[in-house]
Amino acid sequence: MWVTSMPQVWDEEARSRKGDDMMSPAPAAAMLGSLAGWLSRAADPPAPKLCGSPGGPPVTAPRVALRDGRHLAYCESGVPKEQARFRVVFSHGFTGSREDSVRATQEVAEELGVYMVGFDRAGYGESDPNPNRSVKSAALDVEELADALGLGPKFYVIGISLGCHAVWGALKYIPERIAGAAMMAPVVNYWWPGFPADLAAEVYNKQEVGDQWALRVSHYAPGILHWWMDQSWLPTSTVVAGTTPLPNKRDAEIRAKLKADGTFQQKMELATQQGIHESYYRDMMVMFGKWEFDPMSLPKPPCPVHIWQGDEDGLVPVVLQRHIASRLSWVNYHELPATGHFLSPVPGLGDTVLQTLFGNAKQ
């Protein structure tokens, strides 16, 4: 009974929210908090299987060593970095990998002189986990990767979906290093203070019940997220399961094809080979946890910033993206009609992103 009744408490508390306590259901938060203390001790996630360790997955990709001893695996594309006019670090989304990109054509990359490096974010693929992962650490990983590869004093960042938290982090923590930024269908945190409480609560409650609970646990009781997601009798994330209703036809067809030919499962196995907690679940805890800053309170950065968003996105509410754009006058907002969440496969969009970022840019 408590699982099905608590969303009602959520709604009531959301309507009475004051200040920064948006959607903070007192009974729900208190219950999750008390459960977290016991369950975090009783149901710790299994230790990660580090790449290159005995019994762990092999290291097959080039990697850079970070100051804290971790490694990041990466994949280069475009023109050789020594010949590039523009150097880009790409941050993949939820379930993604170092091999993801904006899918621009090689012809456009060569015409513009673009070098791009994608990397497995911490805990994904062949990059070492970071038990202290945060929005700030994501930004610093981007900076360390760029420095290790010699990308120069300034470089560009592009993020997609949940991977855009690293872009927001870069704009917050290392703005002097960023020459330009682009975010494609960036995932939002419903608890960012800049969102009107009633609007955030309204769209939050339109999600599937399992997604509401997965985000709620990620925010209020991250210590029990692994345990929660492992319980078949509890409402859990449809995004992880790949069953979220997708209103956009192209999105639905793409996902159906990926699941039918086994690509969906293969991508999941590669992304989570060191442990699903260190990849997927830490992503959820970082993205939907308590941020140190509100992106809507950021000052204007010393570089152009672009956001692309589909108006039929079934994972990121377009109304919240519009609100962010309305709050940040320095964001160049591009809304795509009849388009969903999966932007990389949109014909020609990868080329458009690069041409927008670099077509009139000065080296």
UniProtKB/TrEMBL annotation:
Coiled coil: none
Biased composition (Basic and acidic residues): 12-21
Gene3D superfamilies per UniProt: alpha/beta hydrolase (3.40.50.1820)
InterPro entries linked to this entry: AB_hydrolase_1, AB_hydrolase_fold
Chain spans, region Disordered: 1-23
Top-level lineage group: Eukaryota
Domain AB hydrolase-1: 88-343
Cited Pfam families: Abhydrolase_1
Record PANTHER family: HYDROLASE, ALPHA/BETA FOLD FAMILY PROTEIN, EXPRESSED-RELATED, HYDROLASE, ALPHA_BETA FOLD FAMILY PROTEIN, EXPRESSED
Protein name per Swiss-Prot or TrEMBL: AB hydrolase-1 domain-containing protein
Organism: Triticum aestivum
High-level lineage: Eukaryota, Viridiplantae, Streptophyta, Embryophyta, Tracheophyta
